[in-house]
Amino acid sequence: MVRLLSGLILVAATLAAILFLPAGALLIVASIVAFLTASEYERIVGASSGLRWGAALVCYLVGSRAYDDATFGVLLIVVGYAVAGSVLLRDDPLERAAATAFGLIYVAVPLGALVLIHRLGGREAVLLLLFTIVVSDSAQYYTGRLFGRRPLAPAISPKKTIEGAVGGLVVGTAFMIFAGRLVFPFVRMPLLAGLGVVLVALGIAGDLFESRLKRKAGIKDSSALIPGHGGILDRIDALLLATPAFYLFLLEVM
Q1: Looking at the DSSP assignment, which residues form a beta bridge with residue 157?
Q2: How many CB atoms lie within 10 A of CB 181?
């Protein structure tokens, strides 16, 4: 009952923010979410305690587009350093620094990009992205329960199966084709199909990535912030990797 109630409240709050908040207010909400999510990430990987403040700032800068080419260049350097050093161990100062830098990219940039999606494509575009991920996740769960036999990544997430991933890929892509035609009637179906495949695949990768972080840290949930559901990172792990790809898609078609 607690899980159901907290889930309904979470869904209602998310929809209300997307449907009714202006871009400026939505950016503030996204920055707060980045702060809370980065706090959970800090706990998991042992990153610097200042990451949460940096994540809120980077989210705000990205979402407000308050940057120039030089700032973008610095961000690219940070990405390169973070990827090169993202082993994410706790006992090495350099790897701790890498984990902190990676956290800015992993958490803050996608949440800022979500606000940019709202600015560029409207609330319909944001809802299309969110529902594609949700529909895919649900399809993965139920397909895995019914037909799952072969584990997808047993060392990371033993309950995930190849059959579940395929089901999520098929259903999520079909949803993108159907709903995407309503939101973007000017986009050809093959492009929507390709977008659906990419988003679902990135969502699965994001889910597995967060599972690996938690398994490495020896914890079940990123936090206990949402009763019965764990933390914010547990709920948006798939969205974090899928959002930048969807934003790049919008830049090309809008």
Answers
A1: 153
A2: 14
Provide the 3-class DSSP secondary structure of residue 22.
coil
Token readout for 76 is: 């690219």
Contacting residues for 182 by C-beta, under 8 A, at least 6 apart: none
CA separation for the pair 226, 96 (Å, rounded):
27
- pTM for this predicted structure: 0.86
172-194 pLDDT per residue, tens: 999 999 999 999 999 999 999 99
Count CB neighbours of 36 within 10 A: 19
Residues in a beta bridge with 153: 157
CA 64 to chain centre: 19
Q: What share of the chain is helix, strand, coil (3-state, %, to 5)?
A: 80, 5, 15
Q: Looking up tokens 């620094």, which residue turns up?
A: 97
Q: Return the exposure string of 12-34: e unless at least 16 CB atoms fall within 10 Å of the residue's CB, then b.
A: eebeebbeebeeeebbebbbebb
DSSP track, 189-248 = HHHHHHHHHHHHHHHHHHHHHHHHHHHHHT-SSS-SSBTTTB-HHHHHHHHHHHHHHHHH
Q: Which of 207, 199, 190, 65 is nearest to 144 (CA)?
A: 207
Question: Identity (one letter) of the amino acid at 231?
Answer: G
Smallest Cα–Cα separation from 232: which of 14, 13, 33, 5? 33
pLDDT in tens, 44-54: 887 667 788 88
